[in-house]
Amino acid sequence: MVKNITEKDYKDAAFDLGVRVEALKAVADVESSGSGFLANGYPKILFEGHLFHNFTSGIYDVIEPTISYSKWTKKYYLGGEKEYTRLHIAAALDREAALKSTSWGRFQILGANYKDAGYESLVGFVHEMHISEKCHLKAFCNVIRKWDLIDALKYLKWDEFAYKYNGPGYKANQYDKKMEMAYLKYTLGD
Q1: Which of 29, 85, 140, 159 is the most exposed place for a label (fewest CB within 10 A)?
Q2: How would you classify residue 110: left for phi > 0, otherwise alpha for psi between -120 and 50, otherwise beta?
């Protein structure tokens, strides 16, 4: 099975949503640095210890301070395949909380948002994130419908989109500017 999103996948999703293909590609590029999968075939993930802390009421903060902590920080991110090490440690403590605290795939959809992504179960969502970027795109389209983000994407309101999709920390990470630059790359060429 082809794991990458095809041009046809992008065109079909863009048509369905009423947005530009370049806008979808811009979000995909910024969220996952251009790929939804690692070289080993697993989906890209990012484990968020502050969310694990919230889902577990902080009961693991003392025994696993790099896995469970009260405030967001990227200090404990390991990146790439090493994020799975963090996920596995957390899953040994509380599997459901660990999966909910992890962002998955090309569009980095948080496990806690599995219902908004169109899935009945968290496990079903995680399973599909292992299949293909087309599954990532389908989940992303469901999320932006559910979160009423289509107009922000359609009218290229990158700050509004980034705020609602990435949360209030979007400015510190310049998600809005990065998406705008990626969009311009696609529309104007390199």
Answers
A1: 85
A2: beta
Q: How far, in Å, CA of 21 to CA of 33, rounded?
A: 17
> At 25, which amino acid appears?
K
Q: CB within 8 A of 15, min separation 6: which ones?
A: none
pLDDT in tens, 32-80: 887 899 999 999 999 999 999 999 999 999 999 999 999 999 899 999 9
Q: State how far the Cα of 168 lies from the Cα of 79, in Å rounded to an integer.
A: 22
Q: How far apart are alpha carbons 186 and 168 in whole angstroms?
A: 26
> Domain limits at 84?
45-104
User: Residue 178 falls within a domain, yes or no?
Assistant: yes
Tell me whether residue 59 is in a domain: yes
User: Tokens at residue 75, please?
Assistant: 């200090």
